[in-house]
Design a protein that fits this description.
The chain is an alpha+beta fold and 411 residues long. It contains twelve helices and twelve strands. The protein has four domains: 123 residues, Alpha-Beta Plaits (2-Layer Sandwich); 70 residues, Ribosomal protein L10, N-terminal fragment, domain II (Molybdopterin biosynthesis moea protein, domain 2, Alpha-Beta Complex), CATH 3.90.105.20; 43 residues, no CATH class; 141 residues, no CATH class. Helix content is 59%, strand content 12%. Strands 2-3-1-11-12 form a five-stranded antiparallel sheet, with helices on both faces. Helix 1 crosses helix 3.
């Protein structure tokens, strides 16, 4: 039986004790990690994480000797330069902390690609020349744009786990591609009998937070719209009910302590709008009334003028009919007296005509009111009737005088 060194036994016992003591055990690949970067990571994680390194064979023995269920499955993830990480922190937050403290670095010849190495599409700083053939040797499609070599589409030049040769490492450095992440690479974690791999632990915290916020907002909207009271929605539901009741009372014109001011202001605004509508209609109606009044006044003036003309014509016809009767009745023997006697009524008739003619068509100014016009028309009618009566009274008085004179002559 081969002899086993005591330090190896001590190392296995130490690792076995730590595996049984800590609830979370992680496997870390420390290959290509500079010593300076390792020291910085240990300082940052001193109070949260315990990091231990040893030979891979001793780690496998420690995992086999541990009492935890399924802990031996971590042997599948011991790649590169493995180390065990012991902690009581949440594995997801631990992975996020380690990821944030990583930095990019170029890959060297002989190193293994940690992930698929991709050369992105776009313009480069190379001028057309031998570099086109060098890029073409890796299957990269190129073109010349604005005097520079441009890569048409993304191209994977090395798969995860492949060893990078010197030619590819040099090309990647010239293109500025840094595929290496310098830091602790947490490969897998054991927690509560489960093995959580790197793909499961690598969570976008911002996207995860946005999903939670979106779910919470959708749940809140559903409860509020459905009227389902919860601790978050009860206040808004009560406010909504109060607002709806106030709006209903205002719409139905029901006076309450809350809406009395609103209803009074609403009534006042309606009254003001109605008043403005009436004021805007009043000026348009006044010209129509004035025109109708003027038309009525013109009609009255025309009728009064016609009445006065007809009365004047009647008076003239009566005077003319009365004069020939006087001439027929008077005797031929005394022509001189007849002429003298006839001159008197002729002068009176002419006076009456002169008095009646200008009064027949009185020209009243347009500015006179209707009452003044009616007064003038009444006075004119009274004067005309008085003149008519004078003419009638004078005509029968002259006839007996003429008869007496003729009788005296005959006698």
């Amino acid at each position: 039986m081969a002899h086993v060194a005591q330090y190896k036994k001590d190392k296995v016992n130490e690792f076995t004790k730590l595996i049984d003591e800590y609830p979370i055990i992680g496997v870390v690949n420390m290959q290509n990690l500079p010593t300076k970067q390792l020291q910085k990571m240990r300082e940052k994680l001193r109070d949260k994480v315990l990091l231990r390194m040893t030979k891979r064979r001793l780690i496998n023995i420690s995992l086999d000797n541990a009492q935890k269920t399924n802990i031996a499955k971590l042997k599948e993830y011991l790649n590169g330069m493995p180390a065990l990480l012991f902690t009581k922190e949440n594995p997801f937050s631990l992975f996020s902390t380690l990821k944030k403290n990583k930095s990019k670095a170029p890959i060297n010849a002989g190193q293994t690609a940690p992930n698929d190495i991709v050369i992105p599409a776009g313009k480069t700083n190379f001028t057309p020349g031998p570099v086109i053939g060098e890029l073409g040797s890796f299957g990269i499609q190129t073109a010349v744009e604005d005097g520079k070599v441009a890569i048409k589409e993304d191209k994977v030049v090395a798969k995860e786990g492949e060893v990078v040769n010197a030619k590819l490492a040099s090309l990647l450095q010239r293109l500025g591609v840094e595929p290496m992440d310098i830091g602790l690479d947490l490969v897998a974690v054991y927690e509560n009998k489960d093995i959580l791999t790197k793909d499961v632990l690598d969570i976008d915290e911002d996207a995860y937070k946005r999903k939670f916020e979106s779910g919470a907002a959708m749940a809140f909207n559903l409860a509020f719209n459905a009227g389902y009271p919860t601790r978050e929605t009860i206040t808004l539901l009560i406010q909504k009910a109060a607002a709806d009741s106030r709006a209903l009372a205002t719409e139905a014109n029901i006076l309450t302590d809350e809406n009395v001011g609103t209803l009074l202001s609403k009534a006042k605004s309606e009254a003001n709008s109605l008043k403005s509508q009436l004021d805007s209609k009043a000026p348009a109606e006044e010209p129509a009334e004035a025109s109708t009044e003027k038309a009525k006044e013109e009609v009255k003036e025309d009728t009064e003028a016609k009445d006065t003309e007809s009365e004047d014509s009647d008076s003239q016809s009566k005077i003319e009919t009365s004069e020939p009767q006087a001439e027929i009745e008077e005797p031929k023997e005394e022509p001189a007296e007849e002429v003298k006697e006839e001159e008197a009524p002729a002068e009176e008739t002419t006076k009456s005509k002169k008095d009646s003619e200008p009064q027949a068509e009185p020209e009243t100014p347009k500015e006179e009111t209707v009452e003044e016009k009616t007064k003038e028309s009444k006075e004119e009618k009274a004067e005309e009737t008085a003149e008519k009566e004078k003419v009638k009274e004078e005509a029968p008085k002259e006839e007996p005088k003429k008869e007496s004179k003729s009788d005296s002559n005959n006698s």
